[in-house]
Amino acid sequence: MSHHRPIRPQDRHGFDALIDARSPAEFADDHLPGAINCPVLSDEERAIVGTLYVQHSAFEARRVGGAFVAANLARHLCGPLADKPPGWRPLVYCWRGGMRSGSMVQWLRLVGWDAQQLSGGYKGFRRHVIDQIAALVPQLDLRVLVGATGSAKTRVLHALAEQGAQVLDLEGLARHKGSLLGALPGVAQPSQKHFETQLATALEGFDLARPVYVEGESARIGRLSVPVPLVQRLRAAACIEVEAPLRERLAYLLRDYAYLGDDPAGLCERLAQWTELHGHATVQRWQTWARLGNLAALFEELMRLHYDPHYGRSQERNFTHWSARRRLPAPDLSPAGIAALAQAVQAPGGFQQENPVQALASH
Q: Per CATH, which fold does 9-119 belong to?
């Protein structure tokens, strides 16, 4: 068996397992999809070795680090790797394909496994992610779902996916609903790097000959930034507008954001960020409704005074083909109504989809 051919990020699917040999903190920030973390140095050990390298010598750092690595490898061999069969083929990586993954690969090969090292490590994979986003995004045949707040656009995307359509759920990847009130209770957003890793993985799975449905997001989702090539492609794509009546939108928001009533103090804190825009009296009225749990009054006024007045202008500013949008009436935002709406979205719409490459070149 040859160990000499460099293993590139695109080769990773041919292995039985991906092993991230970096520290838990590095792994938590971002990692290759599907990787397991078998650190050869813990966060604390990595800090100790780094300090020794700077304050004493490379030899001392290697001596102490070697002892840490040996102990950790023994733990992994007796633990998560104990049940692996003789023909098992893992791909191991560290930060840049250096000593941490190299030492693990050596030991795994001594055991008898055909372990390989990812060339360039995580750093090389990170370049691959950026390159994939830049290369694949301009080729997407995007169909952008737009609509006023409460139009159930995300649920329509989910229904499209259930019906077999290709869907890019940016809010799902970002774990955030996109607005000031969009943070999910008890759910932290991923790092920017991990968001981009998930995005690149989703893009790699698409058939570029088929449409991809996506929600019309702004350039930021919570604290995360949508990569610039995707923002540009969204702006140049064909739009499908979901037009739901106010009462249906309000009923949907009361279902979809019901959890905001469980944390009145947190809701009041977020509403306070609109004081400069709407004035103390208005925001205090909203905060009173939040404390009383009167979400119906709060949401109705938020739509009427905050979201709806800016909606048309922002869409026209953000989407090149806004005036040629396809408009879909959505009189019913119940689950059955949303499923029917998803089918209508996929029906021939009468708009001419611009060639993505030409669209980007012309805008």
A: Oxidized Rhodanese; domain 1 (3.40.250)
Strands 220-221 and 224-225: antiparallel
DSSP state for residue 191 in the 8-state scheme:
P
Alpha-carbon span 28 to 187, nearest angstrom: 15
Tokens found for residue 312? 């048309």
Check if CATH label 3.30.960 holds for domain 137-362. Answer: no
Whole-number Å distance between alpha carbons of 282 and 288: 10
pTM of the model: 0.91
Q: Give start-end residues of each CATH 3.40.250.10 domain in the chain.
A: 9-119
State residue 362's pLDDT score: 40
pLDDT tens per residue, range 24-44: 999 999 999 999 999 999 999
Length of the chain as a residue count: 363
Distances (CA, A) of 64 to 48, 49, 50, 54: 9, 7, 11, 14
Q: How many CB atoms lie within 10 A of CB 348?
A: 6
Contact in structure between 167 and 161 (CB atoms under 8 Å): yes
DSSP letter, residue 213 = E
Q: Where in the chain is the domain with CATH 3.40.50?
A: 137-362
Model confidence over 185-199: pLDDT tens digits?
Answer: 999 999 999 999 999
Orientation angle between helical segments 43-55 and 58-78, nearest 10 degrees: 160
Does 361 have pLDDT greater than 80?
no
Query: Which position among 78, 94, 239, 268 bears the catalytic label?
Result: 94
- Work out the average pLDDT over 314-321: 91
What contacts 24+ positions apart, CB below 8 Å, involve 51-55? none
Known catalytic residue at 268: no
